[in-house]
Each structure stands twice: as C-alpha cells, then as structure tokens.
Design a protein that fits this description.
RNase H type-1 domain-containing protein; single chain; elongated; six-stranded mixed beta sheet; about 550 residues
C-alpha cells in the first residue's frame, strides 16, 4: 500500500514486449476490499452490470461525467383541495422550458402526473435540447425503481405480473422504456418537491396556482422563513427469552432544532402501550412543550416529522372519512392546542431522507431507546397524560359509579388509608386507620413508594376483617393511585401473569398477588378524597400526623 501511495500520479515507463517501444502509464491505485468476494464502489458511481468487468478508473471517469451532465427536476403533487394532480419540470431559473401543468381529467392520479412530467422532460432533452445524456431528478420513488430495475424485467416477460395479468399503466411504462433507449439517463431521488415548486413560481408555461400547491402540500419546505424543528420516532419490538410468550417493546423520539443544537434532545416513552405512531406524536408534543416552556416562547416555526399520517389527519381535524376521530385523539388535542398558541405548521420527510438535521433527529431517537425509564409517575405527569387522558377518564367513571351506588353502601363499615408528607423531606408517612376496633388494626410506616407501602399496611387489616366475617368494606383514602392500581392495573396484570406492557415483571408483584386473593373474599369499595369530607377522614389524618411527629427521629435517620 505504501508503494501504491508513493507512486500515485507518477508516470511509469515500461518496455513493450512485442516491439520494445516504451509505454507510458499514469499510475492510479486500485480500491481493494479485505473480503475477497466483495467490491467497493462509491455510492455516487452508477453501476452498469454489463460493464462490471471494467476497471475502477473507468467508473470514476463515468461518475465525473455525470457530475457535469445537464440536470432536470420533475416533481408532482397529488390532487388536493379540489385541485387536480399536477407536475412541474424545472431546467433552471427563468428557463423557457420550465413547465407547471395539471394533468387531464382522464389521467387524475399521482402516477399519471409523475409519468407525464418525466416523459415530457425526456422529450425536451432529446428533441429540443438535443442532449445525449441527462440527470433526471424526481420525487417519484416508484418511477426511479421502474427505470433502474423493473423495466428490464417487464420488457423480457411482455409486461406481465407474477399472476399473469398485465402490468398496470403498461402503455405509459412502455413509452418510458422507449424514451430511455434513445437517451442516456441517470435517475436521482428528490426528497422534497416543495423547493422545486417554489422555483417554478415564475414559470411562463403554467395553468397551476403555485401558492395553493404550497399551502396544501404536506412535504418539507426548505424555503420556510423561520425556525425548523425535526422530529423522528423510533419503535423497537423483539422477543425476550427471559419472558416466555411476551414481546419486549420500547419506543423513543428525537428532536433536532435546526441552527440551535443546544436545544436538541432525545426521549423515551414510558407507561403506556408502545407504537411507532405514538412515538411520533409524543415527539411532536414534547417539541411543542419545550418551545412553550422557553422564555420567551419559541413561535412561528415548522415541525418536520417522519409521519405522513399525522400531517394528513392534522389538516383534516383528526377525523376519518366517516367522521370518527383518528386514534390517539387525546394526544392530538394537546398538540393542536399548543400548535395554535405557538403558530406552528407541520410538514413531512420520508424515513430514508438524507437531510442532515433529520438524520440527527433519527440518531437522537435511537439514543432515546437507551434511556432509562423512571420508577415513579413523573414521565406521565410531565407529559400531560394525567389530564384529558384515560387516567382522567378512569376517575370520572369511578366517581360516577360511586355516586350511583352510594345509597346501598351508606351503612357499610369504613377504614382509612391516608398519607402525610414530611416538610423538607423526600419521604412521607402513610397510615391505615380502623375506628371501629379502638385503634386495634391501625398501622403506620415511613417510605417512598406510597402505593406499595399503603397496601402492605392494608393487607393485615383486610385479613382481620375477613376473619371477623366481613364481606363488604369501604376504604376511604387520599391516595388516589390505590384506586387506579386495584381497579384497573391489577386486572390487567392478573390476565398477563403480572408482566408489564414492556415485557418486564411487575414490581412488587407479591404484594399485588396478596391483595388480589383478599379482594376475592371481600368486596372493597374505594372512595377517594382530596380534602377531608367526613369526621373520620379528619381523625385518620390526625392519627397519621401524630404518628409522624412521634417517629420524627426515625424519619431523620432515613433522610
């Protein structure tokens, strides 16, 4: 290798074996792979299988030739807002061959717009510009695949599909194949057609309202005058041998602020069912929440995401064609509220986009998958999931059910489970209070997991009540999460064998299993309160506070 580098660019002289004349050769080192069965080519070099035997130098020269080849861009826009599908052809600023036209009524869809634009651009190149080669950039991934792969196969089998039926749009594709036989073409993919449509605003050959196209488009607009934020979602699902029959799932998001890298951040979703769509929506919501929390607030910007579904239904008011709301309506409500306040628009880039900031958001989302999940409820509370969501709906229904059955439970004995937060401490006290047994059965503890600590105190009291023959009991509590845990989560965990949606074992499952067995023997009504409503509520809270003061030295030791 050292010899190759040392001789790079030198003119080497060697005798000709046949007539002994000197032969001059410019030495250029070859690229050699460590793997004998593979070959290395730069991604910009068009690989012609018929010329695979040619040396690397030839392919390098070919790539250089395409670098200076004439370029034409062909973009299309699907029918939207009452406007038919259209296509645009861009050769350069103010070029008289620039075109922006709608397709005829007999050719109404996006494919027709794409193929009409490409065929017209090739005719312009061949017959009007007299070109022998052209670099054609298009936003139609399907046409790129047709030109570079499918056409040769279809040509050989008479344009038939595997089932024997003719390929759809056969005549158009045959026209494309015929044009490609007359001119050398290299296809390149355009990520965002908006940039090209912007350049066609002054096209003389047009019957299209460009401003209407730009307003109706879902694609990323590089010319946007303002801050652009890129958001990417990531979803991972795989089997975990540790938990038979369960899938391991996680989802995350990445947020990249163009030109403001100090604002970039990743995140991981927690504590609700994971899907890629939710990861995408949650990333958008977190970007908006961040912008809203800045001082001054970030306003008048566009969010470019990887979810065309979100952009589509956001513009439709989150309604399906039948008028029903799209899934994850609770997330949409939070997004639209902040988007309206901050004057934010939404655009889309495909997953395989090479935009550097979009790729950075993708890497941040990948990093988010490796972030830890918190043990407490902070991620849900901070993200707004404690309001206007299924949790809020649970308590609304719970309170309604209590009100409807209040009369039949009014004479049932009560017990209390209450909490008391310690000042200047991360700890709290929890107590179970049974007025009917002259304080026999009261219990007190200091800890950090308020639900589990309370349930541990509750278990012996429930066991005692069952032994006494009780079949019904009212639990009055200011620990609302007890109701959520016992009346919602517990049923799901029992069904799934005490495994979470993430595929991991439920923490403190043994405590929940004990409670579950007891609840099969006694009907427990859970009544939640924020402030004491009954005299016994006050007594229970006073008891908890008194016990906390008695054991203040114990609490100090914990801190």
């Amino acid at each position: 290798m050292k010899t190759s580098l040392r001789n790079f660019g030198r003119i080497l002289v060697a005798p000709n074996a046949r007539n002994h004349h000197l032969r001059f050769t410019v030495f250029i080192p070859q690229l050699i792979s460590n793997a004998p069965s593979s070959r290395i080519f730069h991604s910009s070099i068009p690989l012609n299988r018929k010329k695979a035997g040619e040396d690397v130098n030839t392919r390098l020269y070919d790539a250089a030739g395409w670098h200076t080849a004439p370029t034409v861009s062909v973009v299309c826009m699907p029918p939207k807002g009452g406007q038919p599908a259209c296509y645009g052809i861009y050769w350069g600023d103010d070029d008289p061959m620039n075109v922006l036209k709608t397709v005829s009524p007999s050719r109404p869809n996006t494919f027709h717009a794409s193929i009409d634009g490409v065929l017209l651009a090739l005719r312009q190149a061949l017959h009007e510009r007299k070109l022998d080669k052209v670099l054609l950039r298009t936003d139609s991934e399907y046409l790129v695949k047709c030109a570079t792969s499918h056409l040769s196969h279809w040509r050989a089998n008479g344009y038939k599909k595997k089932d024997g039926e003719s390929v759809k749009n056969k005549e158009d594709l045959q026209d494309l194949d015929n044009m490609l036989s007359q001119i050398e073409v290299k296809f390149d993919k355009i990520e965002s057609p908006i940039e090209v449509f912007n350049k066609l605003k002054n096209a003389s050959n047009t019957n299209v309202n460009v401003e209407e196209i730009l307003n109706n488009s879902d694609a990323y607009d590089p010319s946007f005058d303002g801050q652009t934020v890129f958001v990417h979602g990531k979803y991972l699902e795989k089997n975990d041998d540790s938990y038979v029959g369960e899938h391991f799932k996680m989802a995350a998001y990445g947020v990249c602020f163009q030109g403001n890298k100090q604002f970039d951040f990743p995140g991981r979703m927690g504590k609700f069912p994971y899907t890629l769509f939710r990861a995408q929506l949650f990333g958008i919501l977190k970007a908006l929440q961040f912008a809203n929390s800045e001082s001054p607030k970030l306003k008048n910007f566009q969010i470019v995401c990887d979810s065309p579904i979100f952009v589509k239904y956001y513009k439709k008011g989150w309604k399906k064609s039948n008028g029903e709301p799209v899934a994850n309506n609770f997330l949409y409500k939070q997004i639209v509220k902040l988007a309206d306040e901050l004057n934010v628009s939404f655009r889309y880039l495909p997953e395989d986009s090479n935009h550097p900031d979009f790729k950075n958001a993708k890497l941040l989302a990948q990093d988010g998958l490796g972030m830890p999940l918190m043990e407490d409820d902070k991620p849900r509370a901070e993200s707004g999931f404690s309001r206007d969501t299924w949790i809020d709906n649970f308590f609304t229904k719970h309170e309604k059910d209590l009100a409807e059955t209040a009369e039949e439970w009014k004479d049932v004995p009560q017990i209390h489970a209450v909490k008391y937060y310690l000042k200047d401490s991360k700890n709290y006290c929890t107590a179970v209070f049974d007025q009917s047994s002259d304080n026999y059965g009261n219990a007190f503890s200091v800890g950090k997991n308020i639900v589990i600590d309370t349930l541990k105190l509750l278990i012996p009291l429930l066991e005692k009540k069952i032994e006494e023959g009780a079949t019904r009991l009212v639990l009055r509590t200011d620990v609302k999460r007890i109701a959520l845990s016992l009346e919602s989560f517990l049923k799901k965990w029992e069904t799934k064998g005490y495994v979470t949606a993430q595929g991991s074992p439920v923490k403190d499952a043994d405590v929940y299993k004990q409670i579950s067995k007891l609840l099969k023997k006694i009907n427990l009504r859970i009544e939640c309160f924020a402030q004491p409503e009954q005299e016994l509520d006050k007594k229970a809270l006073e008891y908890c506070k008194e016990e906390a003061e008695k054991k203040s030295h114990e609490i100090g030791a914990i801190d």
